Amino acid sequence: MTFTGRKTGKTFTTPVSYVEFDGEIAITCHRTRQWWRNLASNPDVGLRLAGRERRGIATVLDDPDDAFGVFVSLLKAQPVVARVSDIPLDADGMPDPVRTREVLAYTIVVTIKLEEV
Q: Any idea what DSSP says for residue 81?
């Protein structure tokens, strides 16, 4: 993902893991990381997805209540994220809501609406 620094105006590129669903990209990171703060100031981002350059608009969901639904969808789509986050999934693949909220206390969720090509 490529974005602009909020203080320097420089362009930065960082690798991220993502999940694509409902026409959007979802990314998570630990709250202590700093790069996501740039997206709140300048939400225009570039992405390389499956070898193709794309553009999008990022939305930072730093409030756990706002992020809950997207995070649950991400966990269902990528059970490995639930496993590494120590979030149990039930037989239907639904994450434990209590543990999910605990993890969201220190997790940032970013959604990116991709521009049409």
A: H
